TrEMBL record:
It is found in: Cytoplasm; Endoplasmic reticulum. GO terms for cellular component: cytosol; endoplasmic reticulum; signal recognition particle, endoplasmic reticulum targeting. Signal peptide: none annotated. Pfam families: SRP54, SRP54_N, SRP_SPB. Residues 269-282 form the SRP54-type proteins GTP-binding domain. It comes from Coemansia asiatica. This is Signal recognition particle 54 kDa protein. Keywords: Cytoplasm, Endoplasmic reticulum, GTP-binding, Hydrolase, Nucleotide-binding, Ribonucleoprotein, RNA-binding, Signal recognition particle. It comes from the Eukaryota. One of its GO terms (molecular function) is 7S RNA binding. Signal-recognition-particle (SRP) assembly has a crucial role in targeting secretory proteins to the rough endoplasmic reticulum (ER) membrane. SRP is required for the cotranslational protein translocation for ER import and preferentially recognizes strongly hydrophobic signal sequences. It is involved in targeting the nascent chain-ribosome (RNC) complex to the ER and is proposed to participate in the arrest of nascent chain elongation during membrane targeting. SRP54 binds to the signal sequence of presecretory protein when they emerge from the ribosomes. Fungal signal recognition particle consists of a 7S RNA molecule (scR1) and at least six protein subunits: srp72, srp68, srp54, sec65, srp21 and srp14. Belongs to the GTP-binding SRP family. SRP54 subfamily. It catalyses: GTP + H2O = GDP + phosphate + H(+).
Length: 528
């Protein structure tokens, strides 16, 4: 069972509980049976599933429960917490520090996704402002250096490797030495893999570790591996000092439960999850947001971090404009550019509460991204004067035709962009100023949800006014104008209970992307 399905099944079991007229031992047993079966079908280690069942059972005291006003909430919180425990070894993950020359070594079996993940991680920390270098110490697989070189070049990340040197230990040592000399903040060493756990691989890993003395060793594991994950993780743990885990290929049809269980075998935290072959397909992992996202409650912290990385609050001109309710073509270009920088639209939308991955079906994010890129070409063909205008200049047909010619599109495409700009402009006008919807919020509620999404009353999101309330929470958590402005743009309004939050967002997105079909499932306001 893939993780989306697992989340949906646990959700529906919890939902079924709320429909029970009496919540007694029998009802709790039925709930746990359903959850445990779902976990086992997702390849979660059987020992861990038993442990989860016992822990939840221990936390639910039926006598106390009968006096409790909200039994369902108590049970839901217990289940949520135990699901988090399942993927959280309780160890703070290691993070590189800027200004210190951090060395990270990647290990794992051949094809697990080491090389790909090295570059993804390098790009991630580059976005955080670190000076990152990649060392290819994989001399076992012909072509490994070429792969790393290509990936690194694409991401503009310096790399080190050799076509002639056959000794991986020497390459690793030399690469790390050079990057250290040049004061790199983070040096990532990719090592070889083998088809299976074998002595030669382990001996090589140990030699490299001895030579470069990594601050952290990252174990990369294929998410599709199933129950074999447990023994694989143990074998690696016994040989090298695994500090963190990256699980790859968690996109598509990976069951993932087996690899996730590896946390227990190594006692090391999962730090990232690979969700595709592209550079951006790396999700930071932490237990609570992961479980929250799996259960369709979104990943607020991931969304806030992604938005923070954009440093939108540094775009002062736009912020000033927005506050005044003014929205130029240049503002629109900057916003869309930011969205493009955040990575695939599907990923961003997947982080939003209420949007479980299955709701994204039919949402053609690639087509959306292509359309955004064509918009960028149109903006590039405009003069500064035109960009800083409200678009009325294009009532002049010659001007419109000139821009269409310059960007290789039809005049009607330029008109479509101008139409969307007008729509955005109307929303900005409505929301700007002190009367904007962001001024109305309930901080206590937001803080509670931010701290513990599992304890959230399922109706809370609805009460908060769906995505409108979400927006307020992001304001509370991020506390920065850039996030608000971004969210304002992306999501549109949504005030009050059931306010058209998601509905508006759907409308906005589909307008932006030119009416992508298949998003009709999004309800207004909170979901569940
Ligand atoms: N779908 C998907 N594919 C991935 C992911 N991570 C890696 N891959 C693919 O998995 C394949 C193997 O990845 P590599 O990075 O070459 O694996 P490796 O562990 O470095 O392999 P060796 O160098 O031979 O040890 C490649 O085709 C990658 O594109 C992921 O998160 N999702």
């Amino acid at each position: 069972m893939v993780l989306n399905e697992l989340g949906a099944r646990i959700n529906s079991a919890l939902h079924a509980l709320s429909k029970e007229p009496v919540i007694d031992e029998k009802a709790v047993d039925a709930l746990l049976r359903e959850i445990c079966t779902a976990l086992l079908e997702s390849d979660v280690n059987v020992r861990l599933v038993q442990q989860l069942r016992q822990n939840v059972r221990k936390r639910i005291n039926m006598d106390e429960l009968s006096a409790s006003a909200n039994k369902r909430k108590v049970i839901q919180t217990a289940v949520f917490d135990e699901l988090c425990t399942l993927v959280d070894p309780g160890v703070q993950p290691w993070v590189p520090r800027k200004g210190k020359q951090n060395v990270v070594m990647f290990v794992g079996l051949q094809g697990s996704g080491k090389t790909t993940s090295c570059t993804k991680l390098a790009a991630y920390y580059k976005r955080k402002g670190m000076k990152v270098g990649l060392v290819c110490a994989d001399t076992f697989r012909a072509g490994a250096f070429d792969q790393l070189r290509q990936n690194a070049s694409r991401a503009h990340i310096p790399y080190y490797g050799s076509y002639t040197e056959a000794d991986p230990v020497l390459i690793a040592m030399e690469g790390v030495k050079q990057f250290k000399k040049d004061k790199f903040d983070l040096i990532i060493v990719d090592t070889s893999g083998r088809h299976k756990q074998e002595m030669e691989l382990f001996a090589e890993m140990q030699q490299i570790a001895k030579a470069v003395r990594p601050d952290n060793t990252v174990f990369v594991m294929d998410g599709t591996i199933g129950q074999a994950a447990d023994s694989q993780a143990r074998a690696f743990k016994e040989t090298v000092d695994i500090g963190s885990i990256i699980i790859t290929k968690m996109d598509g049809h990976a069951k993932g439960g087996g690899a996730i269980s590896a946390v227990a075998a190594t006692g090391s935290p999962i730090i990232f999850i690979g969700t595709g072959e592209h550079m951006h397909d790396l999700d930071k992992f932490s237990a609570r947001p992961f479980v929250s996202k799996m259960l369709g409650m979104g990943d607020i912290s991931g969304l806030v971090e992604t938005v923070q990385d954009l440093q939108l609050d540094k775009n002062e001109d736009m912020i000033k404009n927005l506050a005044k309710g003014v929205f130029t073509l240049k503002d629109m270009r900057d916003q869309l550019q930011s969205i493009l920088k955040m990575g695939p639209l599907s990923k961003i939308m997947g982080m939003m509460p209420g949007m479980s991955p299955d709701m994204m079906q039919g949402f053609d994010a690639e087509e959306g991204t292509r359309r955004l890129r064509s918009y960028m070409c149109i903006f590039d063909s405009m003069t500064e004067n035109e960009l800083t205008s409200d678009g009325k200049l294009f009532d002049d047909e010659n001007r419109l035709k000139r821009v269409a010619r310059g960007s290789g599109v039809r005049p009607v495409d330029v008109q479509a962009l101008l139409h969307q700009h007008r729509q955005f402009g109307q929303i900005v006008k409505k929301m700007g100023g002190p009367e904007g919807m962001l001024s109305k919020m309930n901080p206590a509620m937001m803080q509670q949800m931010a701290k513990n999404p599992g304890a959230m009353n399922p109706n809370m999101l609805k009460q908060m006014g769906g995505m409108g309330g979400m927006q307020k929470m992001i304001q509370q958590m991020g506390g920065m104008s850039g996030v608000q402005n971004m969210m304002k743009q992306m999501m549109g309004g949504g005030d009050g209970p059931g306010g058209g939050g998601l509905g508006n967002m759907q409308e906005m997105m589909s307008q932006m992307m030119g009416g992508m079909g298949g998003m009709g499932g999004f309800g207004g306001g909170g979901r569940r």
